[in-house]
Predict the structure.
Amino acid sequence: MTDIINKIAVIGFSGAFPGVDNAYDLWNLTSTGSLGIKKSNQDQIAKNLPDDIANNTNFIPFGGGPSNFKNFDASFFGYSPKEAKYLDPQIRKALEYSWHAFEHAGYCPNGINLPVGVYIMV
C-alpha cells in the first residue's frame, strides 16, 4: 500500500477581531493583556436591539466586532454601488479579508493559476 501525502502550506492569513482590524493588531492587543470587547453605550443598544432584548435582565451589554462595515470598494470587487448596497456585510468582509490574505502571502489573486483554497471562519 502506498502512502499518499497531500501537502498543504498556509502562506497567508488575514482577519478582523473584536477591537482590531487585522491579526497583527490582535497580537499587540492580546500581548498587553487587553481585550477588544467593550461595554456598549445606551445609544448603541437602543439603535441595534429590540426593546425586549435590551431590557431583559439577562442581557449583558458588552460586545465587539470588526469595524468599517460600511467601507467597501464595490468597483474593486466588480460590484455596482446598487449591488453593494444589498450585499451582506459578512460577504463584503469575506471578500476584503480574502484579498488581504493573498496580499499577505505575496500573491496577486488575479494571477494565480494553481489550485488555491481560502478558508473562512465567522
